[in-house]
Amino acid sequence: MATEAADRKTDIGPPHYEQFLPPVIKENYGKWKYHERIKPGVMVHVGESGAKVFTVRAGSPRLMSIEYIRFYADLADKYCDGYLRFTSRNNVEFLMTKESNIDPLIADLKAEGFPVGGIGNAISNIVHTQGWVHCHSAATDASGIVKCVMDDLCGYFSGDAVPGKLRIALACCLNMCGAVHCSDIAILGVHRRPPRIQHKGLNKLCEIPNVIAACPTGAIRPTTIDDQPSLQVEEELCMFCANCYTVCPSMPLNDPLNDGLSIWVGGKVSNARTEPRFSKLAIPYLPNNPPRWPEVVQAVRKIVEVWVGNARKYERMGEMIDRIGWPKFFKLADIEFRKEHIDDYKYAGLTYKRSTQLRHG
Ligand code: SF4
Ligand code: SF4
Fold first, then answer.
1. Which positions ≥6 away from 11 have C-beta within 8 Å?
2. Is the CB of 230 under 6 A from ligand 2?
3. Residue 360 CA neighbour count, 13 Å, CB half
4. Res. 64: pLDDT tops 80
5. How far apart are CA 359 and CA 14, in angstroms?
6. Whose CA is nearest to atom 6 of ligand 1?
7. Which tens digit of pLDDT belongs to each residue from 1-29?
8. What does the buried/exposed string (b/e) look like for 323-341 if buried means 16 or more CB atoms within 10 Å of the residue's CB?
9. Ligand 2 within 6 A of 220 CB?
10. 172 lines ligand 1 (CB under 6 A)
11. Residue 24 contacts residue 53 (beta carbons within 8 Å)
12. What is the pLDDT of residues 322-350, one digit of tens each?
């Protein structure tokens, strides 16, 4: 007997998010009147219909064990009819309709050591990349540094007054899987040496034309070594971006003695008041110093304190720097001006100051 073939599934992408929305959000979708922060880590959205949804935000470690995920899921079952979400900065948010569930939920989170906060004028959780846990091109670790920085800044997450929103990001190499290009403070792992080419077997592991095309500065040339096709790098053209290593495992850059970290400031994604903007270089190099990275923790704290002490209400880091000027910001944050601050990219001239209206604070 002939049986009908089942429909073949060819699209195995993520399911439509709508099916995971809490019913109150589905019913009021696009019809919210306003939202406000009730207390640190808690906000309410009020719909045109009068419906309310309460959100409790907690910090998460991002790299999560099964135990933590089960813990979150149990809390969501207990207080939120099973609904929770993760934000793009790895906070976990519990969404509920019963206001009376807020305090017991916060008590359960705190009893397990999870801070509640990060909403409104606060430092949110740090978005970060894979680091030594997973990625092959990391110039530094990700979750380890984030843990140390957030241990130090946790008060600003869960209640200490700050002027506005402050977003911190970490990426462990220039590929920037984290939002380092558009965060108020960005911690970025940097390589400082060109790739070391492993000629043996390179032509079998790597597509030579693709590797040449992958280099943004045109530093990679074809060559022949021991009668085998291979590659060479014009070192003075190399900016240590690791793009070649991403496509060719025979060109590693990782160097425990010379890799380190840089700090960037002033980026944002938000359209509020001013346009979104890229982060700019503040500190070109700090040593990679596990397990607690004291130099990075201290540098980030100093920059945060300069912002807390000098920003006007709601002012983001980049907006404050625009107002007081970069020279004054460098002075306040004890940052030395170095040759690395001068952009030498071939189109950098377009971004240079072209008038005499400089501000020296
Ligand atoms: Fe890997 Fe770089 Fe992404 Fe870090 S930023 S996870 S090293 S590709
Ligand atoms: Fe080119 Fe970047 Fe590789 Fe240097 S590290 S050779 S700049 S792709």
1. none
2. no
3. 1
4. yes
5. 50
6. 130
7. 567 888 887 778 888 899 999 999 999 99
8. ebebebbbebbebeeeeee
9. yes
10. yes
11. yes
12. 999 999 999 999 999 999 999 887 788 88
Q: Which helix (H) or strand (E) holds 213?
A: helix 208-214
Token code pair at residue 219: 């530093």
What whole-number distance in Å separates Cα of residue 197 and Cα of residue 209?
16
Residue type, 332: L
Task: Check residue 325 and give left, alpha or beta (phi > 0: left; psi -120 to 50: alpha).
Answer: left
The three state secondary structure string of 93-123 is EEEECCHHHHHHHHHHHHHCCCCECCCCCCE
Contact, 38 vs 44, CB < 8 A?
Answer: yes
- Ligand 2 mutation target, pool 137, 221, 239, 254, most atoms within 8 A of CB: 239
Q: What is the pLDDT of residue 359?
A: 63
Orientation of helix 294-310 relative to helix 317-324, angle to 10°: 70
Q: Which atom of ligand 1 is nearest to the CA of 129?
A: 6
Task: Tell me how far the alpha carbon of residue 130 lies from the centroid of ligand 1, in angstroms.
Answer: 6
User: Partners of 62 in the beta sheet?
Assistant: none
The pair of structure tokens assigned to 222 is 């074809």
pLDDT digits (tens, 9 = 90+) for 186-218: 999 999 999 999 999 999 999 999 999 999 999
Q: Answer whether residue 357 shows pLDDT above 80.
A: no
| Residue 252: how many other CB atoms lie within 10 Å | 17
What spacing in Å lies between the alpha carbon of 218 and ligand 1's midpoint? 22
Amino acid letter, residue 208: I
> In the block, which residue shows the tokens 């920085």?
149
Ligand 1 near 143 CB (within 6 A): no
Tokens coding 272: 């509020």
Cα separation, 237 vs 255, in Å, equals 19
